[in-house]
């Protein structure tokens, strides 16, 4: 099988159930999720060793779930059932966040992205996730989508923020507080 099909040479691509232009809002939304998935893969590659074994497993699981999100957004027409993303996936993210917050120092001020290489990569995941979320929100304003995808992507950025903080704690890397921030978290 050849990797190239030439079907997109005129600027169109296939959705599940139809053809659209490559700049269609659905393609933009699931393309942003695909970009995020690549950055998650990069973070997973940095999550080496026993110290980050659980995090690495979670990141690979999230990669599969991001493919599920893209699949659910790739339908030319909404369907009533059979979507891959469901509330349990979002609940899993919340459980991981809640468990990790017990290991983190209290957060009072905004922090700058960075610290350890893994934490910095997870901050990139967070910001790319927020952009992907904006694309999904824009898509939802134009047409009906599977709304659980939006909930999942929203919670996922919170996961990446918490995971970045945990990566710094485990690596012994300091977080840098934004100097001009007052205490915004209580």
TrEMBL record:
EC identifiers of the protein? 2.5.1.17
Pathway, per record: Cofactor biosynthesis; adenosylcobalamin biosynthesis; adenosylcobalamin from cob(II)yrinate a,c-diamide: step 2/7
Domain of life per record: Bacteria
- Keyword terms of this UniProt record: ATP-binding, Cobalamin biosynthesis, Nucleotide-binding, Transferase
Which biological processes are named by the entry's GO terms?
cobalamin biosynthetic process
| Chain ranges of the Cobalamin adenosyltransferase-like domain | 3-166
According to the UniProt entry, its GO molecular function terms are:
ATP binding; corrinoid adenosyltransferase activity
Q: Name one Pfam family in it.
A: Cob_adeno_trans
Keyword Cell division tagged? no
Record keyword Transferase present: yes
Q: Which reaction does it catalyse?
A: 2 cob(II)yrinate a,c diamide + reduced [electron-transfer flavoprotein] + 2 ATP = 2 adenosylcob(III)yrinate a,c-diamide + 2 triphosphate + oxidized [electron-transfer flavoprotein] + 3 H(+); 2 cob(II)alamin + reduced [electron-transfer flavoprotein] + 2 ATP = 2 adenosylcob(III)alamin + 2 triphosphate + oxidized [electron-transfer flavoprotein] + 3 H(+)
Complexes and interactors: Homotrimer.
| Family listed | Belongs to the Cob(I)alamin adenosyltransferase family.
NCBIfam families named among the record's database cross-references: PduO_Nterm
Write down what this protein is called. Answer: Corrinoid adenosyltransferase
């Amino acid at each position: 099988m050849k990797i190239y099909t030439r079907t997109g040479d005129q600027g169109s691509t296939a959705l599940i159930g139809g053809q659209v232009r490559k700049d269609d809002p659905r393609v933009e939304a699931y393309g942003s999720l695909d970009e995020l998935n690549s950055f998650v893969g990069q973070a997973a590659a940095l999550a080496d060793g026993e110290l980050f074994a659980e995090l690495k497993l979670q990141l690979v699981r999230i990669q599969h779930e991001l493919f599920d999100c893209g699949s659910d957004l790739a339908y030319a027409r909404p369907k009533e059932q059979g979507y891959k993303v469901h509330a349990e996936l979002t609940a899993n993210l919340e459980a991981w966040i809640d468990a990790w917050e017990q290991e983190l120092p209290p957060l009072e001020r905004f922090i700058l992205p960075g610290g350890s290489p893994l934490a910095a990569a997870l901050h990139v995941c967070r910001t790319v996730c927020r952009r992907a979320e904006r694309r999904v929100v824009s898509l939802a304003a134009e047409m009906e989508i599977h709304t659980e995808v939006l909930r999942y992507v929203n919670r996922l950025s919170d996961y990446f923020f918490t995971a970045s903080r945990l990566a710094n704690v485990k690596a012994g890397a300091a977080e840098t507080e934004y100097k001009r921030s007052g205490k915004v978290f209580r």
